[in-house]
Fold:
Amino acid sequence: MLMFAIFWVFTLRVSAPCINQPFYILKPEPIYVFNIRDPILRAFVGFESFYNQYVVNPISGARGILQFLPVMINEVNRILLECDFNYSLYSWEDAFDVQKSIDMWYIVQRYHNPDYNIQKACQIWFGIGVQYDGMTWVSYYKRIQKRLST
Structure:
């Protein structure tokens, strides 16, 4: 008798019209790797390092989630000194630190790209020359755009 009652209640719940509608106790939020909510920054990090904070490019020596080179860290420090910000200067080891890498990204972008234009961001991060594998900033831009659209 008990088994019949459980089956009957289950059958009623499944056939009830309100069960077909989604019911959330908490609204689901997207999960962002390293808590990076900025889609442009996420596209760059995903392309540059595939979210590996300890990756090192064997050819160029670039490192970290944004594949920093010493010249970019020097540029960040130059900006900080020029603008007389009360920040500690960044070191080569800071490229492996996720939060410091994100901070350096925004320092460079706010200084050289205040409108946060994606093409300008690609020119800044990639450079305007030709890479060892033949890639240019235009092909780099197309790859970043593809990551933004997914």
